[in-house]
Amino acid sequence: DVPVLISEDIVISQPAKILNFLRKQKYNADYELSAKQGADTLAYIALLEEKLLPALLHTFWVEAENYCSVTKPWFASRIPFPLNLYLPGKMSREALNRILLTRGGPPLYSLTEVEAQIYRDAKECLNLLSKRLGTSQFFFGNTPTTLDAFVFGFLAPIYKVCFPRVQLQEHLKQLPNLCRFCDDILTCYFRLTVSGHSPSGQDTADVNLQKLTQLVNKESNLIEKMDDNLRKSPQHPPRKLTTLKLATGGEEGSPLNRLSP
Amino acid sequence: LCLQAFLQMCNLPVRVVCRANAEYMSPSGKLPFIHVGNQVVSELGPIVQFVKAKGHSLSDGLDEVQKAEMKAYMELVNNMLLTAELYLQWCDDVTVEEITHPRYGSPYPWPLNRILSYQKQWEIRRKMKAIGWAGKSLEQVLEDVDQCCQALSQRLGTQPYFFNKQPTELDALVFGHLFTILTTQLTTDELSEKVKNYGNLTAFCRRIEQQYFEGHDKDNSATAAARSAKRSLLR
B9 lies in a domain? Predict the structure, then answer.
């Protein structure tokens, strides 16, 4: 059962329980929120789970091309034999089951109709999130909260994973503030070292998100190498490189501060 | 009841009728549904859209961010309260035996009443399993309801409605659920106690009841509302 948090001798699964545990240890990203903002958080999380999650599950686990070319090999490569032959198939069936039981049923009689409906709902949900975010950096001002983490958890896989069938990703790319939101969090909190292990938050990272960020890191390493090659050519002034380094250096201190109680 | 409240708030005349085969008459198999002229529309979402297309809407005064918030809160109510209500009716053995089976099967002769209610129960339990609620205990479900009520209470604060002066679809939805929880008799009062803990929510329900349900024939609408609430619970 993932995600799982292992802290000394304690093993906790399920996001809600993990969050409670962390709060008892005095790690709380919502400390500064008002009661109303806390209520808003719950409401938006419910919105994500009802409207966005079915389409996300579908993109990853039910859409045949995506599942066969990306999801299944990805997960199978991380699960030991012989479970890797069985578990991805089981997760795929469970995803389809969940979608059909919660969103299927009359007047939607065929799978294509259900699919059309869930993608419509997901696109509407993305639009709503974009309107709510507006021009602020995070959903409740300048510091991230639990809601930002939840939204990021849903959006980042859509945004970053390269699937053959990408209608949701294309829709997301039309909402620049959400893309900027994902990029900000990726650069602040998921900056990985060369070995591919995140220096902070290892324990609390969703196993899937770890794999995703390693994939993203490989991509960004490639991009950096391309950038380096470009910079070595005479057209690009060296100034660009130093400003980039300053920006990343400046942010180094703040994520650690933000995570402390 | 949510729908009735919504229609009353839009100032549209409505007549509530109880039918045993309501679920079968509905085009989507789900309650509630309305019959207008020669059109039949079911479920709260589509009905709200239909009413909006005819020119009546409660949320026109809201800006985009507020509309997003309203939709989010409506999902919260659907996600938590509705699922908790279904859980309590169909997955809690005591309630199922003493209340749900007799009530759901009451319009039908034996053995049809038992067969239909077992079928419905199996269907609901399957759905609970798919979304991960099957493993929850009653205490956990009540805790979730409490959390949801706390969120609603905090959002409502001291305002008369969720978006200040005018009622919206969210107010109708919340009223429908909370009123039903407060007035339906179950084996224990734990669920209604959870709601009663929040004074502003009970005041909110009373206010809407007085404003929109007592203007009309009091006895008729109150009992009809309670009966239709029971029907909507049986969804």
Answer: no
Cβ contact, residue pair B76, A46, below 8 Å: yes
Q: Which residues of B touch A (CB under 8 A)?
A: 27-30, 64-65, 67-69, 71-73, 75-76, 78-80, 126-127, 130-131, 147-148, 150-152, 154-155, 157
pTM of the model: 0.70
Cβ of B69 within 8 Å of Cβ of A35? The answer is no
- Residue B36 belongs to a domain: no
Contact A104, A152 (CB under 8 A): no
Domain assignment present for residue B16? The answer is no
Q: For residue A169, which of A29, A85, A66, A49 has the smallest C-alpha distance?
A: A66
Contact A102 B130 (CB under 8 A): yes
**What is the overall mean pLDDT for chain A?**
71
Residues A211, A74: contact at Cβ < 8 Å?
yes
Confidence band, pLDDT 50/70/90 cuts, at residue A203: very low
Task: Take residue A222 and report the two structure tokens written for it.
Answer: 């490639």
ipTM more than 0.95?
Answer: no
Mean pLDDT over B171-191 rounds to 78
Domains and CATH numbers, chain A: 1-31 (no CATH), 33-190 (1.20.1050)
Type and span of the H or E element at A76: helix A72-76
The domain that contains B167 carries what CATH number? 1.20.1050.10
Task: Provide the domain limits for residue B100.
Answer: 64-233
What is the tens place of the pLDDT at every residue in A1-33? Answer: 566 777 777 777 776 677 777 777 766 767 677
